Amino acid sequence: MTRAFAASRCVLLAAGLAGLAGCAATPPSATETKIAYWTKHHVTVHGKKDVNPIKVTEENIEEGKQSFTSYCMVCHGLDGQNTGVPFAKTISPPVPSLASAEVQAYTDGQLKWIIKNGLYPSGMPPSNGDFSEREMWEMVLYIRHLPKPGSLGDPAVYGGATR
Fold first, then answer.
1. Helix, strand, coil shares of the chain as percentages rounded to 5?
2. Closest to 115 measured CA to CA, from 133, 136, 98
3. In which band, very low, low, confident or very high, does the pLDDT at 66 lie, cut at 50, 70 and 90?
4. What's domain 44-158's architecture?
5. Would you say 60 and 148 are in contact if contact means Cβ atoms under 8 Å apart?
6. Is the pLDDT of residue 155 over 90?
């Protein structure tokens, strides 16, 4: 390899790296957000017609809350609304409040599918194998009956005292 060829390769590499250094992630536009929303609700997330076989009772909602707080609270807070989660709004994409209209628009079957399979590339991990089918359906009940924002305090993992 000649010196001139090696030098030109170094210049090209430096220019490429400089170009990458100028790249910046920006929040999606309103159109991009609408397209992503539609795609998740109609293409990506399955289970739309699956029906929750677990009856809505205080006991089943409480069971769902217990499962939820053992796994999901790290990102969604104890109340499912990101209370006390320091990074929930700063990561991209941000962690959604489970009380939001976007999340509540999913069917029960879709929510259970998301709990089981995750939602790539959002950061929502799959929990398949961590919970039984019944526990996942109970978590769906909890998501449908979330408490008032902040009413359960901050997760202890972030220095909060569980109420």
1. 50, 0, 50
2. 136
3. very high
4. Orthogonal Bundle (1.10)
5. no
6. yes
